[in-house]
Amino acid sequence: MRIGELAQQTGCQVETIRYYEREGILPKPQRGQNNYRLYGEPHQRRLQFVRRCRDLGFSLEEVRTLLDMINGGTQSCAEVEALGRSHLEAVREKIADLRKMEARLSELVSRCHGGRTPDCSFVEELFES
Amino acid sequence: MRIGELAQQTGCQVETIRYYEREGILPKPQRGQNNYRLYGEPHQRRLQFVRRCRDLGFSLEEVRTLLDMINGGTQSCAEVEALGRSHLEAVREKIADLRKMEARLSELVSRCHGGRTPDCSFVEELFES
DNA sequence: CTTGACCCTATAGTGACTACAGGGTTTATA
DNA sequence: TATAAACCCTGTAGTCACTATAGGGTCAAG
């Protein structure tokens, strides 16, 4: 199939697929007489793997690492697990950060009573505290 | 004070301060005979405002909007509140996203029992599901 | 005087895309 | 058959919010 269909099948943009190829995340596919890329199931499965990892917040570098582990053929589930746990920890930290942000924003917003007053506690606190 | 001291006082990098000036977030300061930037308290207070907004996850564009509201002199606390609430909502959505991510990662990781097995459920699920 | 810290401008790089320019190929329709 | 729109290609630049580097000037302390 051509790149447009692969994009549809995987929910990944055409341009992103080309980007992944340039970055070495996807191998170069075969080409037709017209120089169009031609993809088969292995490419599709690999791209779906990449997208799932990305959806889980893995960076491309981490995805690359995972793919290397798999393709090395000497994949150790312990290494994969370690990467997964490390990333899970990062996600939890990010959640914690955002929760702090949320709490502070909630507080600031709750002190807003709207209106056309020149004194806005939201702004005042950000300027002073 | 010079830029290095302003950086220290505000916890903001020298290069970031220059960047903010280029982006129009900070007004151009006066210069000394040596062409060094010279900052006073108004600049410091403004930069601290910018940093606090950034720490709360506001984009530079949103910061710019807030500053315009304030400097327009016709600031309406309702507008500020609206921006704050909208942003708070975005933060909550991001948290929800991350929570989903966390849950999925937790699930995948919990199925990992380590070891040198060629069958890694983590990888298998990402390739197949 | 020397040297290291500080300052300056201009420009490029980061990560993960996304958009655009300019041009070729395919497909569906009149 | 002709046409127009959709699709494909490569190369390059832009997005966002910084961050780093190159090359050069100024200041302050020893």
Automatic annotation (TrEMBL), chains A, B:
Q: Which SUPFAM superfamilies match?
A: Putative DNA-binding domain
CDD domains tied to this protein: HTH_CadR-PbrR-like
Alphabetized UniProt keyword annotations: DNA-binding
Q: Which GO terms describe its molecular function?
A: DNA binding; DNA-binding transcription factor activity
Question: Residue ranges of the HTH merR-type domain?
Answer: 1-69
Pfam families in alphabetical order = MerR_1
Q: What is this protein called?
A: MerR family mercuric resistance operon transcriptional regulator
